[in-house]
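Weekly modeling sync, notes
Attendees: S.R. (lead), two postdocs, one rotation student

Agenda item 3: backlog of single-chain predictions. S.R. asked that every request posted to the team notebook include the full sequence so nobody has to chase files. The rotation student volunteered to paste the first one in as an example of the format we agreed on. Action items at the bottom.

Example entry:
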Amino acid sequence: MEKFRVLGFGHVGIEVADLERSRRFYADMLGFEVIWEYVKPDYHMLFMGRNGCVVELMYGGRPRGDGQLNHLSILVDDVETARAELLRKGVQFETDILLDADLYPRGEKFAMFRGPDGERLQLEQIL
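Predicted structure, as returned to the notebook:
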């Protein structure tokens, strides 16, 4: 059986009420820099980080049913292997493996699932 490697936390996704206020806070107070910005007409994602600590600030477009802390991303080396292994262990996924070609310079593949207390988790492979 193949084993996937966990590389670390990818990021923590946080729903924000005011993206510019959050951008200033993470930059001015914590010294975070913009890593990647993704803008659609009704939705805006801003990845900011420092020394491997990355937050995804999300604004607009989606209901905030999961609260402000939207998901925890687990960075893996091979999302297909990771998802297959977790499926064999009985984890139920909310999504298939999805490709977001616009996120990061070469895109990402990811799949969403829930932890034992309903926490939203993401397997993420940055391409």
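Discussion: group reviewed the output briefly. Residues 66 and 120 are 8 Å apart (CA to CA).
Action items: rotation student to repeat for the remaining queue; S.R. to check formatting next week.
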